[in-house]
């Protein structure tokens, strides 16, 4: 068989990796050196040489998006659908196993996935029920504790008894939390991994089956595996399996979430005869960008060390922009994107990367203002928006009445006269008799112990859910979702919320129906699972998808859009034009990391990840004043800017090369002097209005204007270009 095409377009070291003899392999290499490419080609190589069938391959990537792309690339190389091949994230794969073997895993058939907000809510409830002092044992900390223990593979019974109040309570809460999850048939993210590990560890027949099946395990982004993921790979590989791991210690950015970069070295000790291959040529970025990245990461100690070079062009200097404030920074990015498009380039070649999710809002506004379509990965996750979670809670209750977090969420949303007191009684009864809240509510109604009004309201809620279930059972998934949204009263409820916000919520609910419609043909593997697990109906599959997939569905169809995401989410991706915004001390590096050398180095690796996403052109920007989390602060430029040699940087000012400052304080102050309450003004875009209020002075000055057309707005005077009408 001719497989030479698989080796075309690969360098010597890459060929060695793709065509390596059977065995364990570790590819240790820097950013953009072709790790993911090599992994994909290796899979095609194994299948096309007959060493494996696609059924025998398990490939782990970091995001669902990466998994989809990888599958598409493999199929292109194989020229056939890679049916039977498992390609997914650790969580996705664990989930798949648990669905197929729910009984062995000790789970109810229709188990639901608890996301981090639900988890927080449940923990808060337990703290309240157990009369624990939440000032000494804060729910977030408990949540973190439980997840960290699970990531290490530890159940509450494995923990030594606590030595102080806090520790004791944490462990007790972990116990109570586990019981509650089990009772409600819900599984959190960390639990997916731990359960899947225990499932294989405790069922030798299953382990045997999967070991025989998955002789080839390939893992991308290996530097970010945590203890349990690593244990899982080892267990599944056994002695016969062949593991192909690729990673870059300089890109390990999930230490804060339990990832263990040491696994790179551990792997070489734990597995038999690991062949190590290094890739040193970078194919992604210009020499300028690569040199900047290399110089930056050299400031970290404790690296495995590698030498990354490129034959590529030198490329343009990295542009550095000092913005006046975050609005200016966002507008700057929008204008540069317009320039890019004006040169005939595509919007989807552009990414804006930021450290903190909250930064996205201002950027989004600037994009909307400039009419630039954009898409957000992660962050403002569609499936995490309140109204979507409400709708999903109804759907989850249809799938499983005993899902307490969902019950709590919507029992009185929209308001239907079920007061806190009634909910409290139901909760108490559920706890006392160790049943779900749904069951407890039914029992309470049967015993007729509630006052008539409360009892009627509660009975109406239970009846509503039962009737929604009956009436939508036979419908297609999207019709079912639509039906439930319409009959839950959520639309009416949110239409009372006036203005943009309420409208956006209703649009989101409508979008959920489209998500359900698209879902049917998208996720083939869930169908596949449904066959192995008859109880996994379409609704359940959709709900699981909603929990796992947060973020992807909000993308506006196939529209060509600018990509916005956190630096963490950008891992593994590449874009011709990249903006790294908010390059400021305390924002990036994040203020919690500055005093801890280990965490500071992790932040620097994150900066390295960001820079190495850029192929042709990179913009760094920082704002002198930033309003974030509702607070305005003067800032200092990030130390990571200083880590880059000055000769690679070029400072830009607004207005292209003209050198004209975009901000004219003197002029703004003059205007400010003329403004007073009731002053009539004209704005180039918003038209005619009247000044209502003003605050700050100089660069900070803002005015509030009531415009005839668009209503009240706060404007930064320096930008507003307001004309005073005599
Ligand atoms: P990261 O560390 O960011 O995940 P990576 O090591 O996985 O990067 P890839 O994404 O596989 O790198 O490759 C980076 C880019 O270089 C891709 O566009 C890829 O197609 C290209 N590339 C890789 N190897 C070669 C090669 N031998 N010739 C030409 N292009 C290549
Ligand atoms: Mg990669």
Mean pLDDT: 86
Which kinds of small molecule does this entry bind, naming each only once? adenosine-5'-triphosphate, magnesium ion
Q: Hey, roughly how much beta strand do the residues contain?
A: 15-25%
Give the full name of the CATH homologous superfamily of the largest domain.
P-loop containing nucleotide triphosphate hydrolases
Q: Which structural class is indicated by helix and strand composition?
A: alpha/beta
The outline comes out as: globular
Count the strands?
Answer: 21
How is the biggest beta sheet arranged? 8 strands, mixed
Mind explaining what this structure looks like?
The chain is α/β, with parallel strands linked by helices. The chain folds into five domains: 4-102 and 193-281, P-loop containing nucleotide triphosphate hydrolases (Rossmann fold), CATH 3.40.50; 114-184, Arc Repressor Mutant, subunit A; 318-380 and 555-659, P-loop containing nucleotide triphosphate hydrolases (Rossmann fold, 3-Layer(aba) Sandwich), CATH 3.40.50.300; 384-544, Orthogonal Bundle (PCRA, domain 4); 680-724. The protein is built from 29 helices and 21 strands. The strands form four sheets. Strands 9, 10, 11, 12, 13, 14, 15 and 16 form an eight-stranded mixed β-sheet that branches. It has a six-stranded parallel β-sheet with strand order 3-2-6-7-1-8, sandwiched between helices. The protein has a five-stranded antiparallel β-sheet with strand order 20-19-18-17-21. The longest helix is centred in the C-terminal third of the chain and has 24 residues, at 499-522. Bound molecules: adenosine-5'-triphosphate and magnesium ion. The site of magnesium ion has 4 residues, from α3.
């Amino acid at each position: 068989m001719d497989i030479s095409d698989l080796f075309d377009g690969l360098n010597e070291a890459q060929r060695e990796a793709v065509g390596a003899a059977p065995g364990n392999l570790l590819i240790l290499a820097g950013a953009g050196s072709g790790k993911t490419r090599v992994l994909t080609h290796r899979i095609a190589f194994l299948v096309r040489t007959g060493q494996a069938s696609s059924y025998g391959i398990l490939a782990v990537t970091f995001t669902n998006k990466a998994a989809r792309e990888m599958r598409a690339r493999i199929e292109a190389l194989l020229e056939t659908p890679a049916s039977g091949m498992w390609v997914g994230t650790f969580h996705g794969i664990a989930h798949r196993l648990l669905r197929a073997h729910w009984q062995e895993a000790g789970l109810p058939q229709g188990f639901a996935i608890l996301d981090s907000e639900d988890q927080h809510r449940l923990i808060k409830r337990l703290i309240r029920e157990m009369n624990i002092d939440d000032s000494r044992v804060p729910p977030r900390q408990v949540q973190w504790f439980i997840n960290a223990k699970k990531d290490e593979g530890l159940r509450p019974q494995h923990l030594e008894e606590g030595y102080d109040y806090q520790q004791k309570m944490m462990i007790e809460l972990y116990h109570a939390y586990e019981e509650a999850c089990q009772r409600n048939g819900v599984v959190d993210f960390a639990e997916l991994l731990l359960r899947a590990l225990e499932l294989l560890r405790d069922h030798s027949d299953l382990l045997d089956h999967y070991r025989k099946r998955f002789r080839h395990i390939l893992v991308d982004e290996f530097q970010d595996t945590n203890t349990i993921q690593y244990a899982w790979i080892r267990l599944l590989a056994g002695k016969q399996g062949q593991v192909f791991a690729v990673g870059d210690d300089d890109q390990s950015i999930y230490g804060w979430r339990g990832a263990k970069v040491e696994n790179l070295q551990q792997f070489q000790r734990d597995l038999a005869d690991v062949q190590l291959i290094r890739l040193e040529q970078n194919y992604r970025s210009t020499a300028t960008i690569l040199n900047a990245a290399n110089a930056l990461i050299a400031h970290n100690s404790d690296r495995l060390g590698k030498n990354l070079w490129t034959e590529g062009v030198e490329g343009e200097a990295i542009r550095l922009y000092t913005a006046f404030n975050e609005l200016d920074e966002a507008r700057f990015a929008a204008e540069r994107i317009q320039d890019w498009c004006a040169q005939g380039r595509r919007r989807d070649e552009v990414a804006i990367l930021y450290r903190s999710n909250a930064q996205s809002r201002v950027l989004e506004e600037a994009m909307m203002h400039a009419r630039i379509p954009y898409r957000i990965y992660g962050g403002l996750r569609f499936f995490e928006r309140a109204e979507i979670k409400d709708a999903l809670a109804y759907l989850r209750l249809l799938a499983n009445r005993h899902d307490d977090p969902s019950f709590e969420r919507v029992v009185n949303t929209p308001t239907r006269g079920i007061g806190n007191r009634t909910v409290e009684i139901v909760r108490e009864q559920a706890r006392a008799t160790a049943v779900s809240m749904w069951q407890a509510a039914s029992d309470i109604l049967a015993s007729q112990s509630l006052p008539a009004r409360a009892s009627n309201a509660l009975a109406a809620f239970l009846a509503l859910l039962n009737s929604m279930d009956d009436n939508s059972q036979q419908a297609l998934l999207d019709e079912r979702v639509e039906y439930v949204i319409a009959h839950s009263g959520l639309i009416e409820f949110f239409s009372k919320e006036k203005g943009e916000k309420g409208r956006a919520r209703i649009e989101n609910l409508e979008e959920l129906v489209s998500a359900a419609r698209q879902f049917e043909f998208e996720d083939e593997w869930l169908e596949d699972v449904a066959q192995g697990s008859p109880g996994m109906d379409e609704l359940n599959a959709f709900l699981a998808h909603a929990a796992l997939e947060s973020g992807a569905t909000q993308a506006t169809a196939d529209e060509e859009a600018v990509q916005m995401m956190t630096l963490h989410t950008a891992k593994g991706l590449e874009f011709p034009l990249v903006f790294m915004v908010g390059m400021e001390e305390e924002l990036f590096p994040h203020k919690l990391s500055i005093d801890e050398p280990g965490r500071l180095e992790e932040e620097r690796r994150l900066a390295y990840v960001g820079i190495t996403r850029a192929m042709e052109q990179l913009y760094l920007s920082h704002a002198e004043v930033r309003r974030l989390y509702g607070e305005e602060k003067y800032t200092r430029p990030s130390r990571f800017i200083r880590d880059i040699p000055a000769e690679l940087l070029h400072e830009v000012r607004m207005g292209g090369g003209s050198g004209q400052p975009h901000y004219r304080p003197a002029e703004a102050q003059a205007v400010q002097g003329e403004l007073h309450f009731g002053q009539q003004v004209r704005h180039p875009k918003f038209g005619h209005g009247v000044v209502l209020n003003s605050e700050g002075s100089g660069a900070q000055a803002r005015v509030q204007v009531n415009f005839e057309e668009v209503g009240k707005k706060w404007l930064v005077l320096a930008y507003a270009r307001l004309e005073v009408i005599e």
